[in-house]
């Protein structure tokens, strides 16, 4: 593989080479965090899937541990696909995962640690009862759409429950199973949830969140239920490659999950964790710090030929803490605090006015490997552009109104991975409109259209509306920049957009960072802090 690798990350996890996707069975065990990942040991395209394994004590620096689960028995001989870990009553984790059998059917298997005293969980032993769940004539399960078992949770009847992703025609399904002993699993007649027209549900995730008055960031173990608890159901839509979630009420006595919003629930795909490139995510409860952690996979936006040439594909986002917003209507995500240990040399700018049409370089940090926080002062909404009622699709709006299209209140934000003369840059910004009811509408965009002079890359723009009122509070943006990945958090993590970019000029120490305002109204950058980021150990 080429020695010149301008797109390899400095602090986002990726293995030394080859293809990765999805992070099954994350967990904290005996003080050690475990990261497994779907891995092709033979190349930079998907295939030959095994579980590679790395461990960490901070989820930022990782040590490779060989393979955790790999094809070795009849029920997984053609692949060991995604799955989850569950802590059993003895405190030892069991992994449930999808195996591809000799007939290429998808079946569910179990593996347990060979030595529970080993904090690194180096070797896994497969259950001789495998497969534990399989498609049969009676259960009418689609044998090529039956995968990715969730972490199991315990019901009030001391029985385990779990979900397996599936579909029936185009109806996405979260198939529900129950077991008393974790080995014998019975399919329940009704799925926990299903939605017409959504296609295959990969990597389902189902977990409780605390709905405290005023909001709380405390995470919950997967089996917790109670009056102050809501549940999140996330599914990864194979047809669109996006992770969608709903928040709702789960009744453990009848095993029914009801999403909160009324009306067209059946067609409503719910919200997204991330409005950029982000897929096959998974959460786990970190009992060490009482938080729920979200891990996600970000695929390349380059061509397959480019991936093969550079010898690798796929990176891991910085793990995010995830919790229920105080509105109770959406989740909030924030990079784990441990990433801040990588911050080194930093710059802090005092309150600065960004005049219409201005671009301000932020110097003094390594712009291709940085963490940036900027906050904009309260805005006078009487100056905002009116939102056309037909502009309901934020991604289409970001595509139509990119960073170079002048507005009134915005576009303002950051230009990252920019070249010296601005032939290349990725723009992450806000644009504020006045809605038809007079209320503010905040659009957040990540505009990749100028990110590289190489037009072979997918340079689609991404966007989302942000639930914040910038007349009443500052509008904040944090962006983690790492060579070819740009992770942006709007309004303290209410909206997240991740992008992959491949500049030709803004590499190898030649990347620049700017704050900009391309609106007709001045805005105040009330705070701007930026840090160079140290390299993490990510092998
Ligand atoms: N791909 C895996 C599946 C999962 C999907 C196979 C997510 O288990 O459904 O690598 O990328």
Automatic annotation (TrEMBL):
Pfam families for the chain: Glyco_hydro_32C (PF08244), Glyco_hydro_32N (PF00251)
UniProtKB keywords: Glycosidase, Hydrolase, Signal, Vacuole
InterPro entries noted in UniProt: ConA-like_dom_sf (IPR013320), Fructan_Metab_Enzymes (IPR050551), Glyco_hydro_32 (IPR001362), Glyco_hydro_32_C (IPR013189), Glyco_hydro_32_N (IPR013148), Glyco_hydro_beta-prop_sf (IPR023296)
Record domain Glycosyl hydrolase family 32 N-terminal: where: 12-335
Domain Glycosyl hydrolase family 32 C-terminal positions: 338-532
GO molecular function annotation: beta-fructofuranosidase activity
Catalytic activity: Hydrolysis of terminal non-reducing beta-D-fructofuranoside residues in beta-D-fructofuranosides
Domain of life: Eukaryota
Gene Ontology cellular component annotations, sorted alphabetically: vacuole
Family designation: Belongs to the glycosyl hydrolase 32 family.
Annotated protein name in UniProt: Uncharacterized protein
Lineage, broadest ranks: Eukaryota, Viridiplantae, Streptophyta, Embryophyta, Tracheophyta
């Amino acid at each position: 593989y080429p020695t010149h690798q301008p797109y390899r990350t400095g602090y986002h996890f990726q293995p030394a080479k080859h293809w990765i996707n999805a992070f099954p069975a994350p967990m904290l065990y005996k003080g050690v965090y475990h990261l497994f990942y779907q891995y092709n040991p033979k190349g930079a395209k998907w295939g030959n899937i095994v579980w590679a394994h790395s461990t960490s004590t901070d989820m930022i620096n990782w040590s490779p541990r060989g393979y955790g689960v790999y094809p070795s028995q009849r029920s997984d001989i053609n692949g060991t696909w995604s799955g989850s870990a569950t802590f059993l009553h003895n405190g030892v984790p069991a992994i449930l995962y999808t195996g591809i059998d000799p007939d290429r059917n998808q079946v569910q298997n179990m593996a347990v640690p060979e030595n529970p005293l080993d904090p690194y969980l180096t070797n896994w032993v497969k259950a001789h009862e495998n497969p534990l769940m399989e498609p049969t004539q009676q259960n009418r399960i689609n044998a090529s759409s039956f995968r990715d078992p969730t972490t199991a949770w315990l019901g009030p009847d001391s029985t385990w429950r779990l979900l397996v992703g599936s579909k029936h025609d185009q109806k996405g399904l979260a198939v529900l199973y129950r077991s008393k002993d974790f080995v014998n699993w019975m399919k329940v007649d009704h799925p926990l949830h299903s939605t017409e027209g959504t296609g295959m549900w990969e990597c389902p995730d189902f977990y409780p969140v605390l709905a405290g008055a005023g909001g709380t960031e405390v995470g919950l173990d997967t089996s917790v239920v109670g009056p102050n608890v809501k549940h999140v159901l996330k599914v990864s839509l194979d047809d669109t490659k996006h992770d969608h979630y709903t928040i709702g009420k789960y009744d453990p006595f009848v095993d029914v999950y009801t999403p909160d919003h009324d009306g067209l629930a059946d067609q409503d795909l719910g919200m997204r964790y991330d409005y950029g490139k982000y897929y096959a995510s998974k959460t786990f409860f970190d009992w060490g710090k009482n938080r729920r952690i979200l891990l996600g996979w970000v695929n390349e936006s380059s061509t397959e030929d480019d991936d093969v040439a550079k010898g690798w594909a796929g990176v891991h986002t910085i793990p995010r803490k995830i919790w229920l917003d105080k509105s109770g209507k959406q989740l909030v995500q924030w990079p784990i605090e441990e990433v801040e240990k990588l911050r080194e040399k930093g710059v802090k700018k005092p309150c600065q006015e960004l005049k219409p049409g201005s671009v301000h370089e932020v110097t003094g940090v390594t712009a291709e490997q940085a963490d940036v926080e900027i906050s904009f002062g309260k805005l006078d909404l009487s100056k905002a552009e009116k939102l056309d009622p037909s502009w309901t699709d934020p991604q289409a709006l970001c595509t139509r109104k990119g960073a170079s299209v002048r507005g009134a209140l915005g576009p303002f934000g950051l230009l990252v991975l920019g070249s010296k003369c601005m032939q290349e840059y990725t723009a992450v910004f806000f644009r504020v409109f006045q809605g038809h009811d007079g209320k503010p509408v905040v659009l957040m965009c990540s505009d990749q259209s100028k990110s590289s002079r190489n037009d072979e890359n997918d340079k689609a723009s991404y966007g989302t509306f942000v639930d914040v009122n910038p007349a009443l509070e500052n509008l904040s943006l944090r962006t983690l920049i790492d060579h070819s990945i740009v992770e942006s958090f709007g309004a303290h993590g209410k909206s997240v957009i991740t992008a992959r970019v491949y500049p030709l000029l803004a590499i190898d120490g030649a990347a620049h960072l700017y704050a900009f305002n391309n609106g007709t109204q001045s805005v105040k950058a009330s705070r701007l802090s930026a840090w160079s980021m140290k390299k993490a150990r990510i092998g």
